[in-house]
């Protein structure tokens, strides 16, 4: 059965495009459909058959190119428990990756993108507190569900803070997680590895009361996340 070797499951607005482009620099990595296949997050609504996903990672072209094949679709972080279980059955040994960003910053960035992509009408609710915006930053909740099916050894947890600090070190860590040669990233100019990709400006003024509400939205979840991963993130929440 054909399946990806690795999958980036999230988070949205947390530098997954940066990861995709830097992984694409590696000669032993191949993305058959580019970034964001959107299979698992749309499987229930669109009714996409499993054979469709399998076909993406099979064929003569992939055999000819070789290397590791992957899928980076940040919307996967929030898929249902049923789909996570089904995904595990299809790809039990897959290597998973997730990039986390301060959830308050992520929510502001996500809301700013909604406003930029579609001008709000006067009667439309604030996207800053929509379920779609807030759910994307509940990392503790969602990673708990993923780790009920996959081992912690299969999941590499990165942060946007790490990427800003040293992109080369992050990519070497990713390479080791995927069992590809990390020395490739010693040959790439540091400026290319550190540059963020397509940043979304936070063109959204957040009042103090809104900021307090955002922080309270994520506070308990952050406690859950840090307990789950036995790791402190140092976010001001």
Core attributes:
Rossmann fold, 237 residues, 12 helices, five-stranded parallel sheet, globular, 46% helix, alpha/beta, 5 strands, single chain
Overview of this protein structure:
With 237 residues, the chain is an alpha/beta fold. It has a single domain (6-229), classed as P-loop containing nucleotide triphosphate hydrolases (Rossmann fold). Helix content is 46%, strand content 10%. The protein has helices at residues 16-23, 43-46, 50-56, 60-65, 81-90, 103-117, 131-135, 139-146, 160-165, 167-178, 190-194, 208-229; strands at residues 6-10, 29-30, 68-72, 95-100, 155-159. Strands 2-3-1-4-5 form a five-stranded parallel sheet. It is globular. The model has no long low-confidence stretch (mean pLDDT 91).
Compile the SSE list and pairings:
Layout: E1 6-10, H1 16-23, E2 29-30, H2 43-46, H3 50-56, H4 60-65, E3 68-72, H5 81-90, E4 95-100, H6 103-117, H7 131-135, H8 139-146, E5 155-159, H9 160-165, H10 167-178, H11 190-194, H12 208-229
Parallel strand pairs: 1-3, 1-4, 2-3, 4-5
Q: What is the helix/strand order?
A: EHEHHHEHEHHHEHHHH
Briefly note the structural class of the backbone.
Answer: alpha/beta
Order of adjacent strands in the largest pleated sheet: 2-3-1-4-5
Proportion of strand residues: 5-15%
CATH topology descriptor: Rossmann fold
Number of domains: 1
**Named CATH architecture:** 3-Layer(aba) Sandwich
Assign a percent range to the helix content. 40-55%
Form type: globular
CATH superfamily: P-loop containing nucleotide triphosphate hydrolases
Uncertain runs with pLDDT below 50, 5 residues or more?
Answer: none
Largest sheet data: 5 strands, parallel
Task: Just give the CATH class.
Answer: Alpha Beta
Compute the number of helices: 12
Mean pLDDT score: 91
Q: How widely separated are the two ends?
A: 44 Å
Radius of gyration: 18 Å
Number of strands: 5
